[in-house]
Specification:
transmembrane transporter activity; Growth Hormone, Chain: A; MFS_Efflux_Transporters; 0% strand; MFS
Length: 408
């Protein structure tokens, strides 16, 4: 694998750390600013909304410059946002810093996915995308618990300063290691927007919302579920989240490996397994060992869907994949927000802390049904499509040519 993928993974590690570490530091932040925990929760919600807004906006703004330069600008934005959070004198300024940092999130992963796919041979695209996302999964295993420990020991401001330093490392890595590949000729914003006329692109994004939403319907409420239902101590929740992150790491690698060989089978098998695991979690949540095993399994199966879904968006968007790729990252966050809301509804309705697991299972089943629909439409299109040149006839740099450019 090219060293450029390491630079992308470092950036992903920093982004993943800042996204999730705030959850463990909310009490400290709320106490310092004199706000309630629900008010401090806007630091999570604001970040998610910023990702959904930033994915299309930042990608659209970057269509006129090279992808390498845009990645560097995004890391600069990420650094600025985290530094602002670290020195924020009042809560509103910290919230602004979180939003600024979040604007880089979707576009970085979206553009980074396209760059990663261009750096390798065409039959290794999903593996390259998975390598970049490894930074995000490792963040959940190492970055988040370590950042939480540092924040609780030395102060949450130190944590955000260190995250900004990670951004500097990612920026330097992109500048030194990522090749400045030529921009595809003739591809403008209107071509990027045209990708959304493709029903397969829309189906893939809907699968992302529902499939990953299924994961976070359960994981969002893992703390009260594990303490009130399973009987774990409060301090054990951190290690259960580390276990979940380890599952994400394994699932990402497995998904990347097999998505290049059998993408449809990898996607459908993962979604089916995820639906089963989430359904069983309602039962296994009453036993400590079984609950821990299930949490790991949900991490594996949930993140095994990421490489095939991201690769599917890239493939279906054809000549203009950048905006579609970034929007699919926003779809992950949209799924997180919707599923957390639905999980809160069933808990509020009195169905208990395990009820979100059923919500997650239903969302995963819905994503699986869409996968079957997408595959059926693709087979039908392949059977009846005439052997003609695509109507847009956009001149682009094929992935294999870009690969030769990097390795020549």
């Amino acid at each position: 694998m090219p060293l450029a993928l390491l630079a992308l993974a470092i950036g992903a590690f920093g982004i993943g750390t800042t996204e999730f570490v705030i959850m463990g530091l909310l009490p400290q932040v709320a106490g310092d600013f004199g706000v309630s925990i629900p008010t401090a929760g806007w630091l999570v919600t604001g970040y998610a909304l910023g990702v959904m807004l930033g994915a299309p906006v930042m990608t659209a703004l970057g269509t006129r410059i090279s992808r390498k330069r845009m990645l560097m600008l995004l890391m600069g934005l990420f650094i600025a946002g985290n530094l602002l959070s670290a020195v924020a004198p009042v809560f509103g300024v910290m919230l602004l810093g979180r939003v600024i940092a979040s604007l880089a999130h979707g576009a970085f992963f979206g553009i980074g996915s396209v760059v990663a796919a261009e750096l390798v041979a065409p039959d290794k695209k999903a593996g390259a995308i998975a390598m970049m996302f490894t930074g995000l999964t490792v963040a959940n295993v190492v970055g988040v618990p370590l950042g939480t420990f540092v924040g609780q020991s030395l102060g949450w401001r130190v944590t955000f300063a260190l995250v900004a330093a990670l951004g500097v490392a990612g920026l330097v890595g992109v500048a030194k290691l990522v090749p400045d590949l030529p921009k595809p000729e003739g591809v403008h914003l209107r071509h990027e927007l045209a990708a959304f006329k493709n029903v397969q692109v829309l189906l893939a994004m809907a699968m992302t919302v529902l499939g990953f939403g299924g994961v976070f319907a359960a994981i969002t409420y893992i703390a009260p579920m594990m303490t009130e239902v399973t009987g774990f101590a409060d301090g054990s929740v951190t290690w259960l989240l580390v276990l979940f992150g380890a599952g994400m790491f394994v699932g990402n690698l497995v998904g990347g490996k097999f998505a290049d060989r059998a993408p449809v089978l990898m996607l459908t098998a993962s979604l089916a397994g995820l639906a089963v695991a989430l359904g069983l979690f309602t039962v296994t949540a009453h036993d400590k060992v079984a609950a821990a095993v299930t949490i790991f399994a949900i991490g594996v199966l949930g993140f095994a869907t990421v490489p095939p879904l991201q690769k599917r968006v890239l493939d279906q968007a054809h000549a203009a994949p950048t905006l579609a790729s970034a929007m699919n990252i926003g779809a992950f966050n949209l799924g997180n927000a919707i599923s957390a809301w639905l999980g809160g509804l069933v808990i509020g309705a009195g169905f208990g802390y395990t009820a979100p697991n059923w919500v997650g299972a239903a969302l995963a089943v819905s994503a699986l049904l869409l996968a079957f629909v997408a595959e059926g439409l693709e087979r039908r299109a392949g059977k009846f499509a005439p052997n003609t040149v695509p109507a847009n006839n956009i001149s682009t740099i094929p992935a294999n040519e870009a690969y030769r450019t990097v390795h020549s």
